[in-house]
Design goal:
Radius of gyration: 26 Å
Number of strands: 18
Largest sheet: 11 strands, antiparallel
Helix content: 40-55%
Distance between the termini: 48 Å
Structural class: alpha+beta
Number of helices: 29
Strand content: 5-15%
């Protein structure tokens, strides 16, 4: 999915797509006294980095790489040297153990951990499910949730999905054969997408219950058809109190040491005959062919770990010019925008608990994107990574020029890519503002979608744009209903108003067509914006999900042209502008389709070794070791584990360092059981590993040398955020929840012994009181 595709998506999805889909919260803004005070307090609470044990000398220096399963055959020797206890060939098969247990949630990763469809992922990946089931009176976002029986498990909502990868098939020749002979770039791009759609249709026709896609790798040089079982009845089983799941909040975000229990459990259900089905009380738990076992081996420093998941997006194969554009324009612009959006939403939701619940997903998505963009900019600009990319590309140019054959094959490719990018940059302010406006309001997005659907319905299904083919109709309507539950006019209007204000400040030549249609070409005053919004929201019927769904099923282009609804009328203007933008993007993509593969071919030969494709939301494997790091040359080395006593030292009785009473009581009474690490002398909470991960990897299972579950990936360190562009082995670290902490919380604190038994773990403690009673009755500790 490209950022062009994202412009018509809901805001949170678009943020994830176009801002590397990183699952974290925002760094605090030091300009305000509140945030400055929080950071000062955090420094007092957070233990000084301790040297810990001297790390054992390891022969492995992780070069990075988010590898496709098929590429792991080239890593056999290295995996064996690192101690892998099973045949590395298993890792080339996405259906074998352990990869067969790894699934996608459509934005996060997860894994099956029982024969009855039990899944484990991150707490922050379950925020949508918690929000969907929350009310001001029963706020699961804050208090957590535990189903004592399967009958108590709650639907995560109609859009909940679990995708189980069943097959990878290379289809490069079927997609690319003869495309270079098509002279018109747009026609070339259209033909390529037509072929991909045809492959998807044929795949799904022969595989009922499967979701197929054709994914691009290596900048369009290679294509794979991917088949996935799409499970549609997903239920919330267990998520701990926010004082566990997001302990440390924004102050600790992207920081180490961390003490966060970022975990949650789902269960997948199926209908009659074990087939995927929508939610029904008659459905039964899905029986996965593979599930992970919980590790019995104690995890220690320098131990091998491997993460498998669905990383969303990286940019390591971009040119130096593209890195420079991101550094000087994209990230600074995005940071300003996200800061403004957060300020608007915080003002709109103050003193309104119900509105805060509705805004939760948007706020978290914005905070994710803001922190991500700040870290990227710091690494690329202040960290000098952009300059390093320039030097690396200069070497590539010299290497190409030094050989006549290479010069004939690749000599002009970097120049041609730079030329196309320069032409595209001329309209980037206009295009960016149009995308902001188009997804600034849910009602605008729905209006555009209805006009698109009416136009596409008149075509044969094979000729429709992929997102409007019949295979997607039911899912789109489910999305409408789910989004309506989060809709509030106050939020929608506030964000749309900000997008209008930002676009109005652009030079007239950069203002997108919808803005000119609404206000003309004269300067746009605040009063005019308010008046336009009053008129739009006063009489629209698009706030009704039922009305939108009905129009989705029945509307025709002619019928919509006679509609008087103000948002539908505005939607026509937006559709025309977005269609023109899409045509320009197709033209650009068609031209790049002949250049990018040549660039990648040169890069592979230049590097003379294995090259991992950029992340694209498909199944990937990364491996490394449990390892601390030194954040700066003049700083002490961090050890790779945190423990309970450090969390107690941070506890202040106030958010974000407000550990639940039940946790503190369990610590005070030393209910530790077998979860103590013999080397640490305490229950571990989080650990570091030199893994290559990014957004979308959230919730990914970390397995040990035996393929057994030892942790869940949930974050990374701030120093390495720009590793989406350049992997930095000395400081790039992933932050994971130690699964011993997950088991300790479930066993000693929350009374989830039945889930431990289901995972094959023998609980150390007998069930206690109900969680709510335990929280209310426990004494404070620490």
């Amino acid at each position: 999915m490209t950022c062009l595709d994202c412009r018509r998506l809901p805001l949170v999805w678009a943020l994830a797509c176009c801002a590397s889909f990183v699952a974290c919260r925002a760094e605090q803004d030091s300009d305000t006294e509140r945030q400055a005070a929080a950071k000062r307090a955090s420094k007092k609470r957070t233990p000084t980095p301790v040297p810990g044990r001297v790390a054992k000398k390891t022969s492995y220096d992780n070069p990075g790489g988010m590898w496709m399963p098929s590429q792991l055959k080239d890593h056999t020797d290295q995996l064996r040297r690192l101690g892998l206890s099973y045949d590395p060939k298993q890792l080339t098969d996405p259906t074998a153990s352990p990869l067969g247990a790894i699934v996608s949630l459509g934005g996060c990763s997860a894994s099956f951990v029982s024969k009855q469809g039990l899944l484990v992922t991150n707490h922050h990946c379950a925020q949508g499910a918690l929000q969907y089931n929350s009310t001001p009176e029963q706020n699961l976002l804050q208090d957590g949730f535990l189903a004592k029986t399967q009958q108590d498990e709650k639907s995560v909502g109609p859009t909940g999905r679990v995708y189980v990868t069943a097959a990878f098939t290379e289809v490069t020749e079927k997609v690319l054969a003869g495309l270079a002979d098509i002279p018109d770039p747009k026609a070339r791009s259209d033909e390529r997408e037509k072929r991909r759609n045809a492959l998807v249709a044929a795949c799904e026709k022969n595989n009922i219950g499967r979701r197929c896609s054709v994914a691009s790798y290596f900048e369009g040089a290679q294509f794979f058809q991917i088949e996935q079982l799409e499970l549609r009845d997903i239920r919330l089983v267990y998520a701990p109190d926010a004082g566990i799941g997001i302990f440390g909040g924004e102050v600790d975000n992207w920081q180490w040491p961390r003490h966060t229990g970022d975990f949650a459990f789902y269960r997948a259900y199926v209908g009659e005959g074990g087939k995927p089905a929508d939610f029904s009380t008659a459905n039964k738990p899905y029986a996965p062919p593979r599930h992970l076992k919980i590790a019995k081996r104690k995890l220690g420093e320098d131990d091998f770990v491997m993460v498998a998941g669905y990383p969303a997006h990286t940019s390591r194969l971009k040119t130096a010019g593209e890195v420079a554009a991101a550094t000087t324009w994209y990230y600074p612009r995005a940071i300003t925008r996200y800061e403004q959006m957060l300020a608007v939403l915080e003002k709109a939701t103050q003193n309104d608990d119900a509105l805060k619940i509705k805004a939760n997903a948007i706020l978290r998505g914005l905070n994710n994107a803001l922190t991500n963009n700040r870290g990227m900019l710091d690494g690329l600009a202040k960290g000098g990574l952009a300059h390093e990319r320039e030097k690396e590309e200069s070497k590539l140019r010299d290497w190409i020029a030094s050989d006549a054959t290479r010069n004939r094959e690749y000599g002009d490719v970097l120049h041609q890519i730079a030329r196309l990018n320069a032409d595209k940059r001329k309209g980037r302010e206009r295009d960016a503002a149009l995308s902001e406006l188009a997804r600034g309001s849910r009602l605008v997005r729905w209006a555009v979608m209805l006009h698109d659907m009416a136009e596409e319905r008149a075509k044969a299904d094979a000729d429709r744009k992929g997102r409007y083919q019949q295979r997607n109709w039911a899912r789109t309507k489910q999305g409408i209903l789910a989004a309506a539950k989060r809709y509030d006019q106050r939020l929608d209007r506030a964000l749309f108003k900000l997008a209008l204000e930002r676009a109005a400040k652009l030079p007239v030549e950069d203002q997108p067509a919808p803005l000119k249609s609404m206000f003309g070409s004269s300067s746009i005053e605040q009063a005019a914006i308010d008046a336009a919004l009053d008129k739009l929201y006063a009489t629209t019927e698009l706030e009704s999900a039922e009305h939108v769904s009905q129009l989705f099923d029945t509307a025709t282009t002619r019928g919509l042209q006679s509609e008087r609804d103000p948002f539908l009328r505005l939607g026509r203007v937006f559709k025309a502008a977005l269609d023109a933008q899409e045509d320009r993007e197709d033209q650009f993509s068609g031209e790049m389709s002949l250049l990018r593969p040549r660039y990648i071919a040169a890069l592979k030969k230049f590097k003379n070794g294995a090259l991992a494709p950029d992340a694209n939301g498909t199944l990937r494997i990364t491996y490394g070791t449990v390892r601390g790091y030194r954040p700066a040359i003049d700083k002490p080395r961090y050890r790779p584990f945190t423990v309970l006593s450090e969390m107690v030292a941070k506890h202040t009785d106030k958010e974000p360092f407000d550990a639940p009473d039940a946790v503190l009581a369990a610590i005070e009474t030393r209910r530790f059981g077998p979860y103590i690490d013999p080397n640490l002398g305490e229950v571990p909470i989080n650990f570091l590993a030199d893994l290559d991960t990014t957004g979308g990897n959230s919730g990914s299972a970390a397995v040990d040398r035996d393929g057994n579950l030892v942790g869940l990936l949930f974050d990374g360190n701030y120093e390495s955020m720009a590793s989406d562009w350049v992997f930095m082995p000395n400081i790039t670290r992933s932050i994971l929840v130690d699964f011993r902490y997950v088991m300790w919380i479930a066993d000693a604190v929350d009374g989830a012994q039945h889930l431990l038994k289901e995972m094959g773990v023998s609980p150390a403690f007998k069930p206690q009181k109900e969680l709510s009673q335990l929280k209310a009755g426990s004494t404070k500790a620490g």
